[in-house]
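Thread: assembly with ligand

MN 10:42: here's the input set. Chains plus the small molecule as SMILES. Want everything predicted jointly, not piecewise.
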Amino acid sequence: MLSEADCLLIGAGAGLSTAAGLTYKGLRFTDNFADFISRYGMSDMYSSSFYDFDTEEEYWAYWALHIGINRFDPPALPLYAELRELAEGLDHFVITTNVDHQFFKSGFDPVRVFAVQGDYGNLQCAVGCHQRLYDDEGLVASMRSAIDRCRIPSELVPHCPVCGGPMDVNLRKNRYFVQDESWYFAQQRYDDYLSHAANRKLVLLEIGVGYNTPGIIRYPFERILQLRPRTTLIRINPSDLQGLAENAAQTIPFGEDTASTISLLLPASIGVNNG
Ligand SMILES: [Zn+2]
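BT 11:07: finished. Tokens for the full assembly:
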């Protein structure tokens, strides 16, 4: 299917970054958050990201660490590099709920990536009083180096430059999520890509997308299958593999290990030359 495709639309969820090595539990969690685990009883980086801290100093100490180890410390991970290799030579586009910037780091053309749910690397006004994002790399580094007993110094707590209220990480978790110009530009590029692919042989490659936010990738992909009989869905996911029964003939599911499956789909592995 990949060797015969005209267009490749990649839809990637949390399972891809987990498979790439950005796991939210185990040693990556216990090594980096030992103080937070003993103080707050946290159990993994996913649930701890919903922890209701009493003070902004604690909130930002947690988030500076979380953002640092998931967004700024990791280089482009090999699994993402393989995915880019897989997409090379194909007319491709990426839609992802991941906020770790890995598609950009691994060299995907930024105009071919729509990161719908935000980016750990940006801050916004906590109540979205204005639609602008602020690069947080320098601030996060300062906060991390100043953490003391699970707090940062009050002078490092960020404030909205417009309303003076609290800031937050640019993640879609409530109705205040900020979508700036570049977000709308990416959404438009995605819509344009879908129109452009309408009469071509399209392969949807869905990786690690579960039922946390299925309305962004999973359900729209199933809908594309219903509307476009020439489209094939390759679904890679060790769990939640089952799709809509009426789309089964157009779906190729892989419940095996995500990283190994992607490696086996590389042009060199399947003996074809993309393009
Ligand atoms: Zn504001």
